[in-house]
């Protein structure tokens, strides 16, 4: 199973999956358009565990930051609605 198929299956299980694609080929279509395929980040093989750890940490932190922004926006909308109601 390649990256395209893997992310498709992962997203069926969890639409909010945080997935990182890894490849030794820099001209790989999935690596070039990783976000379009649903990956949060990419890493080129071979890599050190410290590199993978940093990419995973950045991906997860970015995901949490986006969720926090969405929650904040929804809270502001809710407060406006409550005041107007």
Number of helices: 4
Which percent band covers the strand fraction? 5-15%
Largest sheet properties: 2 strands, parallel
Strand order of the largest sheet: 1-2
> Structural class, from secondary structure content?
mainly alpha
Q: What's the name of the CATH homologous superfamily?
A: Response regulator
- Radius of gyration based on Cα positions: 17 Å
CATH architecture: 3-Layer(aba) Sandwich
What percentage of residues falls in helices of 4 or more residues? 55-70%
Succession of helices and strands? HEHHEH
Shape: elongated
Give the number of domains: 1
Indicate the CATH topology.
Answer: Rossmann fold
Mean pLDDT: 88
Low-confidence stretches: none
Q: How many strand units?
A: 2
- What distance separates the N and C termini? 53 Å
The CATH class, by name, is: Alpha Beta
């Amino acid at each position: 199973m390649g990256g395209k198929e893997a992310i498709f299956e992962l997203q069926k299980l969890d639409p909010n999956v945080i997935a990182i694609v890894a490849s030794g080929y820099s001209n790989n279509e999935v690596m070039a358009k990783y976000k379009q395929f649903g990956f949060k980040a990419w890493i080129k093989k071979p890599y050190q565990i410290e590199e993978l750890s940093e990419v995973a940490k950045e991906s997860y932190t970015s995901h949490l930051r986006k969720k926090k922004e969405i929650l904040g926006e929804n809270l502001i909308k809710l407060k406006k609605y409550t005041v107007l109601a």
